[in-house]
Amino acid sequence: MEDEAATITDQTTAYPLRTERLVLRPVREGDIDPLTAYRNDPQVAALQDWELPYPRERAERLVAEHAGRVDITPGTGTQIGIERDGRLIGDVYVGLHEHGGVAEMGFTLAKEHQGQGYAVEAVSAVVADLVGRLGVHRVFAQLSPLNEASARVLERAGFEFESLAPRSFWWRGTWDDNLVYALSAEGWREWRDRPRQAPREVRLVELTDDNEWAHRSVRTHRSQQRFVAPVAQSYGDAMFGEEDGRRVAAVLRGIEADGERAGFVMWTDVDPAVAEPYLWRLLIDRRHQHRGIGARVMGMIVEHLREQGHRTLRTSWVQAKGGPEPFYLRLGFVPTGEYDDGEAVARLRLE
């Protein structure tokens, strides 16, 4: 174990680490004022572990602890500044175990720089360095379940939900629930090598006794599960679903992209003369999101329903940040102003 730590510290430093838009390096004296400013922002600090006010003296001590540092130091925390166009806009915390191998991460971004992908870019770069250069085999992050924005950052960087421990984290005088996301070295490599481009072929696959179990492995990010139920629940909904007091038949299809399982879709099977079809479920696997697969699937469903004689398609969604509303609005769905079980109802004309 001591040899492993020595190997880490003897390697050539990667810092400053440069990404497409950012420079990442240990915090330094010129960071004291901006660091103090954004850490005193109530919106930035709301779900972080420091108390307000955050005194300038604390920032000075933090910077002094990093004097002369040019790399991540095992056995102690390292605060890596996120620099954009010569200005500090946030920081990434790395707590590397004294024997290497395991690292904890955290991150902070000034309010005016949030929502632009900087946190994902910085976290992804630091994780790549931890795994690729320092040989770390596990990276994890702890956060409040209320911190949905940070959960989405971690998910976009490849982290997966690992555990939720109720009332296990002492925070500002009370016990908070503790959410843990983690990423193994193998998981990072799989995430790095996942397909990114638009697929050549997208197919809807009929589910059978032979393949339905395999399609249960399709899953979204944890933060998306409040918006779309998993495949296993969809099977149950299809079996027992009702609308207006009558049983509803459903069409269930797996989604394949270039031969890989990439998603799942379900809609109601109704007579055009009797009822309006309802898009009941659409989910794209976390590894295949942002490839345009969902829009292509919707195009196939629309064409199929037109051929059957349908003129409209109805669906509904939870209206909240991170939800599917922008996707459906881009496709042409128009909210009706109605709500069904708390979800906004919308309709797409198929003519």
The CATH H-level superfamily of the largest domain is Gcn5-related N-acetyltransferase (GNAT)
Characterize the largest beta sheet: strand count, sense, and whether it forms a barrel: 8 strands, mixed
* CATH architecture descriptor of the largest domain: 3-Layer(aba) Sandwich
Strand portion:
25-35%
CATH class of the largest domain: Alpha Beta
Helix content: 25-40%
Cα shape: elongated
Structural domains: how many: 2
Low-confidence stretches: 1-11
- Computed Rg: 24 Å
Average pLDDT over all residues:
93
The overall strand count is 17
CATH topology heading of the largest domain: Aminopeptidase
Cα end-to-end separation: 67 Å
**SSE run:** HEEHHHEEEHEHEEHEHHEEEEEHEHEE
Could you say which structural class the secondary elements and strand pairing correspond to?
alpha+beta
Write the layout of secondary structure elements.
Elements: H1 2-10, E1 17-18, E2 23-26, H2 32-39, H3 42-45, H4 56-65, E3 77-84, E4 87-96, E5 102-109, H5 118-132, E6 138-143, H6 148-156, E7 160-171, E8 174-184, H7 185-192, E9 202-206, H8 212-215, H9 231-240, E10 242-243, E11 246-247, E12 250-257, E13 260-268, E14 279-284, H10 293-308, E15 312-317, H11 325-331, E16 334-340, E17 343-349
Parallel strand pairs: 5-6
Antiparallel strand pairs: 1-2, 2-3, 3-4, 4-5, 6-8, 7-8, 9-12, 10-11, 12-13, 13-14, 15-17, 16-17
Helix pairs in contact: 2-4
What do these coordinates show?
By secondary structure, the protein is α+β, with helices and mostly antiparallel strands. It has helices spanning 2-10, 32-39, 42-45, 56-65, 118-132, 148-156, 185-192, 212-215, 231-240, 293-308, 325-331, and strands at residues 17-18, 23-26, 77-84, 87-96, 102-109, 138-143, 160-171, 174-184, 202-206, 242-243, 246-247, 250-257, 260-268, 279-284, 312-317, 334-340, 343-349. The chain has two domains: 2-192, Aminopeptidase (3-Layer(aba) Sandwich), CATH 3.40.630; 202-349, Gcn5-related N-acetyltransferase (GNAT) (Aminopeptidase, 3-Layer(aba) Sandwich). The strands form four sheets. It has an eight-stranded mixed beta sheet with strand order 1-2-3-4-5-6-8-7, with helices on both faces. The longest helix has 16 residues, at 293-308.
